[in-house]
Amino acid sequence: MEKKYLFLFLIFSIGNSQEKVIDSLINLDEVSVTGLRASEDMPITFSKVTKKELSKRNLGQDLPILLNFLPSVVTTSDAGAGIGYTGIRVRGSDATRVNVTINGIPYNDPESQGTFWVNLPDISSSVENIQVQRGVGTSSNGSSAFGATINILTDGISEEGYTKISRSYGSFNSQKSTVKYSTGLINNKFEFSGRHSKIKSDGYIDRASSNLKSYFFQGLYKNDKRLFKLLVFGGSEITYQSWYGVDPVTLKNKRTYNFAGEIYNSSDELIGFYDNQVDNYKQDHYQFHWNEKINVNLNLSIGLNYTYGRGFYEEYNNNQTFNSLQLQEINIGGEKIIETDNVGQKWLDNDNYITTLSLQYFTDRTKIIFGGSYGKYIGDHFGKMVWAKFSSNALPNHEFYYNQGKKSDGNIYTKITQKINRKLSLFGDLQLREVAYRVSGEVNGPSKISINDKFSFFNPKFGINYNLNGLARMYFSYARANREPNRTDYENGNPKPEKMDDYELGIKFINNRIDSKLNIYFMDYKDQLVLTGQLDEVGAPIRQNVGDSYRFGLEFEGIFKINDKLISDFNLSVSRNKNRNFYFKRDGLIQNLGKTNISFSPSVIAGNKFILIFDKNFSATVLSKYVGEQYMGNIDSNFSKLDSYFTNDLNINYQVIPKKWIKKIDVYLLVNNFLNQKYISNGYWYSYDDNWSEVGKIKTIEGVGYYPQAGINFFLGTNIEF
Predict the structure, then answer these.
(1) Could you tell me what percentage of the chain is helix, strand and coil, using 3-state DSSP and rounding each to the nearest 5?
(2) pLDDT per position as a tens digit, 545-562
(3) Which of the following CATH numbers is that of domain 2-721: 3.90.580.10, 3.40.50.300, 3.40.50.720, 2.40.170.20?
(4) How far from 489 is each of 92, 222, 438, 486, CA to CA, in Å?
């Protein structure tokens, strides 16, 4: 199958695509994403975020936090203040089931399927626009979307040269420095641009510090029919671990406490914290894009990508057994030593090669897109011991486990949008995807790991779009999606691939004062891999297949121009998220709990922005977010429930236009959670059997951990453009 995909790519050499049509031609700068994005005449539920919208709040927090106010979105931050490790869920689906592409190139880690934004700090400063498709959406490159697709287009062509210097400061000793520049178009053909960023923060949680650096370079050549782009971007991060959370007692007494790095003496007394209990990782991306207007109706795109990632997390371990470190027991003074305090590093060193293609044919009545991608991933996982109180037979940099994962992922798709008449259009999208995943070696423990799985998925999508009049349109779509398990699923059981049928019915209305969208969705799952609430030893969420389940909901979003000075941007999501027959082993007996709530799936999510425009240079926005109560497990246990929360932020923007050599000065103030709510946006839940407290009886014990978020905090920033 791999040879077949490579042959297709060499013969067609075509790329990937995604966005807007102007007089039957796609903007060359957006051809690389046009094949993956939804357009207004497609029966797809989506939202769009522009560079201008991002810039107003881009003062150091990660991209998921900047997307927090979109429909059906819930975000969280391990460090509590939006810098460092952050997460996003859409329609209750976690990041492993949200497909992310950058210029049409899949960004999700092939093995974990997660998206680690901490590896691309300040990527928001190099974004042209983002489209978020909810549900399955259109066919994309990489794993199928089970909650949403986040499609990112990086900086477009700048005709004029510039230099921008941005600085921001905030609570918890947070600060961001960014320098961005462009030559502008040289001879109307060449442009070179770049960005350097540095972000630091102590974090809201104790010792949850972040030291982040990133870069973005772009060189391009264009003429009327052709665009070549070469991009090199990436980042490095050193973050103190903060994924342990806190238990209910600690939350009450000291909500910012961090258990990571605790050091105990022989009497089990806490004597301090290890100062290098960090995650240390670097990631570099190399992309090449060739976008071509073959003729007035035909566009071509080729994308090539290489990603190199490497790094480790380091931790202090109290009393770890020699066996788990693959060391021999020793005898000192007649005493057998079988465990030792030590410092270990768990490494990941990976290479990811991806090529994408798209060929787009457009007429006034017909749009046909043929495309696909092929990727090859190789990841080495290994552990090193860098210090031990008793080192036994260890040599320097003793390796205590090693395994290698290999994954190939190929897909081809064809999309057709056909206008039947002035009001009616039909949409069809057929995708074939092939995945092969292999892992061999040892994992930490040590224990053997062996995975050798192959999958063939067929993902059809159909829809109808009907213009009621010049102001409103309705659409209906059906989409089938299939997904393979991720590495953590294999390490914790014998997982099955998951399947989903997505039905979407929507209406859009727009006039000079209102731009609104209302849609109803029904997502019907077979063997859905839902979060159990538990975490593994490295903080990765554990999932399990749950048989039959569904998500049924209504989403509304609307922009209302109340008057020339006041705008409301409101969204509301109401849903039911249920396991149909959930089995759970309680007190030693397997029980059918019947219909239960799916974990981490609040039934109500709402967001609103009140934008007050004083004049063209001065505006203020109040951003409000409500997230209803949710369960961290799937058994409807009150102990696992996260309370609802309601937060409010204030964002003030002021612009000065000097008369001399400075083009403009922007001043930004962001006050997060200005009502100082004590809230928790994420956590974990677990259970275990107690069969020793009472002879002959088994009792199920539950436990929880929470990730508290910061109270009132602020960022103040400036942007000077020359």
Answers:
(1) 5, 60, 35
(2) 998 999 999 999 999 999
(3) 2.40.170.20
(4) 18, 45, 14, 5
Residue-wise pLDDT tens digits, 488-546: 999 998 999 999 999 999 999 999 899 999 999 999 999 999 999 999 888 889 999 99
Q: Is 40 helix (H, G, I), strand (E, B) or coil?
A: coil
pLDDT of residue 26: 56
Is it the case that residue 126 has pLDDT exceeding 90?
yes
- The Cα–Cα gap between 100 and 401 comes to 31
Residues 6+ apart with CB under 8 A from 574: 553, 554, 603, 604
Give φ, ψ of 119 to 5 degrees: -80, -15
Residue 613 near residue 595 (C-beta atoms within 8 A): no
Are the CB atoms for 695 and 671 separated by under 8 Å?
no
Model pTM score: 0.93
Q: Which are the contacts of 573, defined by CB distance < 8 A and separation ≥ 6?
A: 71, 72, 91, 553, 554, 555, 556, 604, 605, 606
Counted residue by residue, the chain has a size of: 722
- Does the pLDDT at position 293 exceed 50? yes
Residues 6+ apart with CB under 8 A from 642: 629, 630, 631, 632, 680, 681, 682, 683, 706
Two tokens at 632? 């961290």
Tell me what the pLDDT averaged over the chain comes to.
Answer: 93
* Helix, coil or strand: residue 363: coil
DSSP secondary structure string for all residues of 478-542: EEEEEE---HHHHHTS----EEEEEEEEEEEEE-SSEEEEEEEEEEEEES-EEEEEEE-TTSPEE
